[in-house]
Amino acid sequence: MSTPLPTPPPDELLDAALRHELRWEAPPELTNRLLQLVPSASPYVVTTSVPLPRWRFYLAIALIALAVLVSIIGTTYLYQIVWFQLGAGSLIAQLEALPARLLQSLYETLPFARELVSIATLIRDQLHWLLLALVLWILLDTWQPERRLAGNEQSSS
């Protein structure tokens, strides 16, 4: 437990808080071991705290989990209410339809755009396969089972 801080003047508040928080107390076991090194030192009495019973520990964990769950559900519900009050559902629907409308207007203004888009789609598909081949090549190139087996045999000998 920490001791209460006296209230310093406002200009020294940060310094006092830092001094208080940076104070470190050594664990009793470490203190006893260090005192045993000095022949004329008096022994330090270690007070052991009794741990919480198991059921209280699990109860605390369950209550914390329940509080987190309730706060997440409450926040989600609040955001959902605000979201639909602002009309975000219609905004999402408009955003979903936007690419199709833009592509349709591109096709109407530039008739050859269909061919360009289909060629770009074919190139994209080929680039996906090329990327997959490149990743597999890198994985197989760095995988060297002979060295691992030889290293295991040497370490066991």
Structure description:
The chain has about 160 residues and is an all-alpha fold. The chain has a domain at about 100-140. About 75% of the residues lie in helices and about 0% in strands. The protein is built from six helices and no strands. It has helices at about 15-20, 30-35, 55-85, 90-110, 115-140, 145-155.
Show the helix and strand layout.
Layout: H1 13-21, H2 28-37, H3 54-85, H4 88-109, H5 113-142, H6 145-156
Approximately how much beta-strand content do the residues carry?
A: under 5%
Please compute the radius of gyration using only Cα atoms. 34 Å
Order of H and E elements: HHHHHH
Total helical segments = 6
Strand pairing plus helix content: what structural class? mainly alpha
Oligomeric form of this entry? single chain
Give the overall pLDDT as a whole number: 83
Helix content: over 70%
Spatial gap, N to C terminus: 55 Å
| Low-confidence segments | none
What is this structure, in a nutshell?
This protein is mainly α.
Features:
6 helices, elongated, mainly alpha, 157 residues
